[in-house]
Amino acid sequence: MKRLINQTPAPMLRVLLTLLPFVALVLLYMLASDARLAENPADKLLPSFAQIGDAIQRMAFEPSKRSGDYLLWEDTLSSLTRLGLGVVIAAVIGLALGLFTGALPLVAATASPLLTVVSLIPPLAILPVLFIVFGLGELSKVALIAIGITPFIARDIQRRTQEIPSEQLVKAQTLGANTSQIICRVLLPQLMPRLVDAVRLSLGAGWLFLIAAEAIAATEGLGYRIFLVRRYMAMDVILPYVAWITLLAFVIDALLAALSRRLFPWHHQGAH
Predict the structure, then answer these.
(1) Residue 21 near residue 6, CB atoms below 8 Å
(2) Is residue 124 part of a domain?
(3) Which of 29, 86, 151, 156 is least enclosed by beta carbons within 10 angstroms?
(4) Residue 47: DSSP 8-state
(5) Does residue 226 fall inside a structural domain?
(6) Which residues contact 35 (CB under 8 A, 6 or more apart)?
(7) What is the CATH number of the domain that holds 250?
(8) Is residue 114 part of a domain?
(9) Strand, helix or coil at 138?
(10) Distances from the Cα of 97 to the Cαs of 22, 76, 100, 151, 271, in angstroms?
(11) Total count of domains within the chain
């Protein structure tokens, strides 16, 4: 008898198993929504799919009567701009910190303890400080994302740097390479795909910090819109926005994974 631990689903079965929980969630939602609306047609907690469709039509394909903008796309552009800037800044700083603290013992002795302490500070706790220092504009929101995920990226890159076999460094020095050449030609190329992986893992936290900042101080953005309409219990708007954020996060992650495979095929050759 084949053990369960050794059983691998066929491709078609894998697809069905992947879709199963999503179909179950949709059916469960439909049943719960129908039950609540049958009891109270004015119920807003679980709107029907028809109500959700009307809200999507209104937010995405009809200009706002107040501003003339298509709100969903305007919010998406604002949020992705903030997220992109914050992640790029965090990736650059995190790569530099992780590389130098992982490769240079003198730098590690100075910066590693500080990096550890900073990584333990909840980023949302310093959000009021950022608003005081940088104001309520874009800078404070981008800074929160960068500050929130930089320590994670830096510590991951630091660990990856330390995992590189020391034999490679010894051989490079034997061939006459100096410190800068070792960093640029031996360590950095091996760390770039690791950086992409670290950015992918940090995107969830990045979205969290983005939405939190937009909810407190913004005039457009996905997080702003969700917290704006919650006072009216507009779940027909909130649910599509949450689903849209989830889809955007999935697409960005898939694009980064494809970019990593394209730029660093050697890194994925050992993967199954």
Answers:
(1) no
(2) yes
(3) 29
(4) -
(5) yes
(6) none
(7) 1.10.3720.10
(8) yes
(9) helix
(10) 40, 31, 5, 9, 28
(11) 1
